[in-house]
Structures are given as C-alpha cells and as structure tokens.
Structure to design on (594 residues):
C-alpha cells in the first residue's frame, strides 16, 4: 500500500497542477487578451498574418488616449463613482442597524425575518425593471443619476443586511453585555462597541456595495438614455459597440481600467465576504 | 464627538426607555430597512403583477384591466417557448459545469502551495470584474475575423486553414458560447464558496478516513461531498438565480440571436417591455421567471431550517 501511495502522490500532484493551470488559463485569459489588445497598435491588431498573442509592433498608448479624449469615459467613471458613494451611504444607514437587530435583538421571529429580507434579494431586476421604468418616469427622474441612487439600494440593502447580520453574529455578545454593565444603553452598546468591533465587516460591505453598483447593468440601461449620464458598465458596451466600427483597443482598455482595481480591492476582502455570505445560510 | 452628543442626550433619558428595550429597539433599527425594501421591492413587484393583467404601454397614461390576455398571448407566441427552452438549457448546463468545475478547482486549491494567493486572484477576476465588460472581452474573443480561438485552433490544425466558425452567428455555437461565458463568470464564486466549506470540515474527519484506508474517490463520495452538501447547495442556488434571471451576457454577446436561438426569458422581457414599449407584455414574460425563483426560495428556506436543527 505504501508503494501504491508513493506512486500516487506525484500523479495526484501532476493532475492537480494541470487542473489548476487549465482553470487559471480559462479564468484569466480574457484579461490577458484585453491587456494585449489595449496596448497594441491598430495595424498590428488587424494584420491577420501576425501572431495575435504577442506584440508584433511596439506597444502604444493611443487607445487609452482615444478613450479619454474622444469618448466620455472619464465622465462615466465619475458618474459611477458618484452613484457608488451615494448608494454606499444609503446602504450603510439602512443595513447596519437592521443587520445588528437581526443578529441580536429580534428574537425567535428574527430568523424568519432575516430569511424574508434575504429572499427579496432573489427578486431579480428583470422582474422589477419594467415597473421601475414607470415609477422613474412618474418621478421625472429619467436620464438622471438620481434614478440609480434611488433604485440600487433595492438590491444592496437586502444583501448587505444579510452579510452584516453574519458579521455581528460572529461577535461574542459578552462584549456588549460588559459595556451595558458599565452604563451604556443597549443602543450605546451597538453604536460604540458592536460597530467598531465589526468594522472590518462593515468595510467589506462597503466594497461589495461598490462592486454591485459597478456591475449593475439592467437598470442603468433602462433608465439612462443620454450618453453623458451613463455609468461605466452601461456606457462601454452600448456606446462603444453601437457603431459599425469597433474600437477594440479602446474598449479593451476601458474594460481593464475598470476591472483590475475592483478585482484587487475585492480580493483583499474575499474571505470575509464568503464567511458572511455562507454563515447565515449554513450555520445558525 | 459621539461621546459629547450622547452625554447631552443622557439627562432626558428618563422618559424614552426604548434605547434599552430590546423589542422597541429592534423595531426602530429594522424599520428603515424594511420600509425601503417594501417601497422599492414590494411595491414594484405588485406593480409588475398589475401590469401583467393590464394593457400598459410606455406612452399610455390610462391602463385597462385585460385579465390574463398578456399571459395568453405570451403562451401563444412561439418565441416565448423558445426562450423558455433556452433559459432552461442555459441554466441547467452552465450550473452543472459550474458546480463540477468549482468543486474540482476548490480541491486543487485546498492545500497551501507557493503562489496560491496569485492563483486565487487570477481565478477570481471573472467574478469581480463587471460582467458587462467581461462579456465585451469575450465578444472580441469570438470576433468573426480576429477570433483568437479560431487562430489557435488553426495553428494547432484542429480546424482547416479555411474554416471560419462564426461563434455567435451559428445557432448551436452561439448557445455554447454564451454558456461558456456564463460558466467563466460564475465558476470562481462557486470555487471560493466550496473552498470555504471545505476549510470548515474538521481535519480529524479526514485523518480518520485516511487511517481507515479510504481512497480518493471513496473519500470524495462518502465523506467530502455529503459534508459539503449545504455549502454546495448555497453555491448552486445563487448560480441558478444569477443565471436564470441574467440577461447581460446574452444582451452583450448575441442580443438573443441568431433567430432567437439564445433568447432567454429575461432578455425577451427586456426587448418586449423596454425596447418594444409593451410594458404589460414584458411584465407578463418576466413573471414567468417567478415559479423558478419561488422554487429556489423554498430550497433556501428548507436548507436554512435543516442547518438550524444541526
């Protein structure tokens, strides 16, 4: 048996390596492809006889320049950021207290209520965007970024409440009890003890809210029609792909510029995210 | 600053005891979130129900009740049935691939090795980058003339030098392409969720199994998979919801074409309700998504309840 195991180990390691290599290639290749396209000169891009995987001519910044000079990409970035900040603020104000209440205060009915709130996250934009289009029209918010500020919390609040509930549950209740013995009210214990202790969870929630806002597409596409009010996720695919000529270099540069910072930020918090994501569902 | 504010309030504390009453405090803390969700999820949802039985269009000010007319005309429309079939194929095939791939990748990533952090960053990229932009990256990969897939296949002599497969323009290839992109997008999430679940299994269980002489497959099927079932179900539930209700991949890559062979319910609802201006018809189509969501919701509830007993 030992001999068999000795043989099996390098085999297993090799298989594991091959599997990982293939999976990484599958996941990361489109980003490599974006990177190389974004900095290739146009003549190099369209020459069919060239090896497309490498630079055949010196890299160029022309596409990046085109993106910022000839399109409203900078404006779209600012729009997205502005909406993101506003939505994060609304989400925190609503979801932090609700998450805490569900984790600590709501008693036996709290669990049911928590699931109820979570289920509203499952009602997809594809059901809600038609009534929303009408509501936005009635409120006179068409084509305004305020429409997105109003609507985006409809999916960030349920999701973040669920996440924050998980983070608060992970704090030992004794901490707040001790603070209350020292004279803080229940509310004071929440604001001054529980929130500071859960601050990394709150930060994680901020990052996730931002990524949800950056990713959102359906509402942005439905409510916003003038290109100066686009967010990045809507502006790039609708504006840059609309014509007969595709400016692949500029498009890929846009994808990279937006994707990589979010990816880097998100990776820092992924463990907390997964913990909060699953704790409510599998551990009570 | 907080401390000062609280001190100033404290003398008046005698009357409102709500800050110490858990019941009242819970209500006060929950009310704003529940109100917002009620107004911005509950109300539009009811409105969607109402539209689906009316003759609402984008321009009209007055609606009339038309009963189940919109559902009837949806059911009589062959495109609807095609979209329903496509939705099911799209969801089932991509989720099967996502779960298998996610589990395999999680097992390969489970034990630490040098460079694991970098590998994880690269694997997570498709999930954390905005999908509408990732899908455009794929649009370029599938380009009819400059497709890198064709180039590689030609270089490896997998296809002849004169073969020019049009990935997004031929019915079966188009469906395979959108499924591929969806798997690309969702497999990373499944991987990290399953990985988290695997890390939560106590090491003693693995050790005991190894001492009892359980081999790789036996270990996987008798120990690993049953223990991971709740976590894998979580990954699967999310994957199903994200896939069944998603229209971004389809919208960017194929717009439902060619000949509606990649049209799914979500994209059909969008093209009917927003681009076609037929709010009522679009709402009716979107509501056909609901039975699936309800099933998933019941699944989630059962799962949560079972986990609570354990």
């Amino acid at each position: 048996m030992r001999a068999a195991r000795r043989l099996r180990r390098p085999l297993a390691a090799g298989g594991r390596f091959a599997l990982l290599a293939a999976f990484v290639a599958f996941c990361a290749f489109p980003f490599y492809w974006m990177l190389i396209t974004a900095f290739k000169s146009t003549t190099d891009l369209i020459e069919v006889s060239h090896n497309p995987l490498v630079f055949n001519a010196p890299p160029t910044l022309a596409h990046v320049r085109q993106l910022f000079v000839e399109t409203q990409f900078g404006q779209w970035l600012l729009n997205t950021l502005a909406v993101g900040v506003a939505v994060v603020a609304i989400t925190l104000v609503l979801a932090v207290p609700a998450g805490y209440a569900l984790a600590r205060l709501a008693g036996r009915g709290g669990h049911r209520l928590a699931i109820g709130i979570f289920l509203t996250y499952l009602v997809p934009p594809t059901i809600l965007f038609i009534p929303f289009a009408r509501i936005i029209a009635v409120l006179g918010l068409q084509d305004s970024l305020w429409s997105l500020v109003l609507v985006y919390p409809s999916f960030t609040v349920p999701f973040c409440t669920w996440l924050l509930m998980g983070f608060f549950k992970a704090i030992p209740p004794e901490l707040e009890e001790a603070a209350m013995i020292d004279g803080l009210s229940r509310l004071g214990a929440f604001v001054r003890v529980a929130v500071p202790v859960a601050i990394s969870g709150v930060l994680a929630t901020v990052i996730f809210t931002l990524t949800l806002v950056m990713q959102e597409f359906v509402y942005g596409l439905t409510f916003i029609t003038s290109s100066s009010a686009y967010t990045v996720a809507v502006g790039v695919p609708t504006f840059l792909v609309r014509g007969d000529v595709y400016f692949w270099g500029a498009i890929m540069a846009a994808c990279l510029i937006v994707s990589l910072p979010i990816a880097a930020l998100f990776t820092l918090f992924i463990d907390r995210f997964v913990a909060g994501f699953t704790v409510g569902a599998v551990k009570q | 600053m907080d401390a000062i504010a609280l001190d100033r309030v404290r003398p008046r504390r005698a009357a409102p005891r709500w800050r110490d009453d858990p019941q009242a405090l819970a209500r006060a803390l929950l009310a704003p979130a529940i109100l917002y969700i009620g107004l911005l999820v509950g109300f539009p949802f009811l409105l969607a129900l109402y539209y689906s039985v009316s003759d609402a269009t984008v321009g009209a000010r007055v609606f009339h009740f038309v009963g189940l007319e919109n559902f009837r005309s949806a059911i009589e429309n062959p495109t609807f049935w095609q979209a329903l079939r496509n939705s099911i194929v799209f969801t089932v095939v991509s989720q099967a691939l996502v779960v298998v791939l996610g589990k395999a990748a999680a097992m390969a990533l489970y034990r630490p090795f040098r460079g694991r952090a970098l590998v994880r960053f690269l694997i997570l990229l498709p999930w954390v980058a905005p999908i509408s932009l990732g899908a455009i990256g794929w649009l370029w990969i599938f380009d009819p003339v400059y497709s890198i897939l064709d180039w590689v296949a030609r270089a490896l002599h997998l296809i002849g030098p004169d073969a020019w497969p049009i990935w997004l323009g031929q019915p079966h290839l188009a469906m395979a392409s959108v499924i591929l992109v969806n798997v690309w997008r969702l497999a990373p999430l499944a991987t990290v969720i399953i990985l988290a679940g695997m890390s939560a299994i106590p090491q003693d269980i693995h050790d005991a199994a190894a001492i009892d002489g359980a081999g790789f497959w036996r270990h996987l099927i008798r120990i690993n998979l049953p223990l991971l079932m709740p976590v894998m179900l979580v990954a699967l539930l999310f994957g199903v919801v994200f896939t069944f209700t998603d229209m971004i991949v389809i919208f960017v890559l194929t717009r439902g074409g060619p000949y509606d062979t990649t049209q799914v319910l979500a994209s059909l609802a969008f093209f009917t309700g927003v681009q076609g201006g037929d709010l009522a018809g679009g709402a009716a189509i979107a509501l056909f998504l609901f039975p699936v969501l309800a099933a998933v919701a019941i699944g989630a509830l059962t799962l949560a309840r079972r986990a609570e007993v354990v």
About this structure: Chain B has one domain: 73-309. Confidence is low (pLDDT under 50) at residues 1-15 of chain B. The two ends of chain B are 45 Å apart (CA to CA).
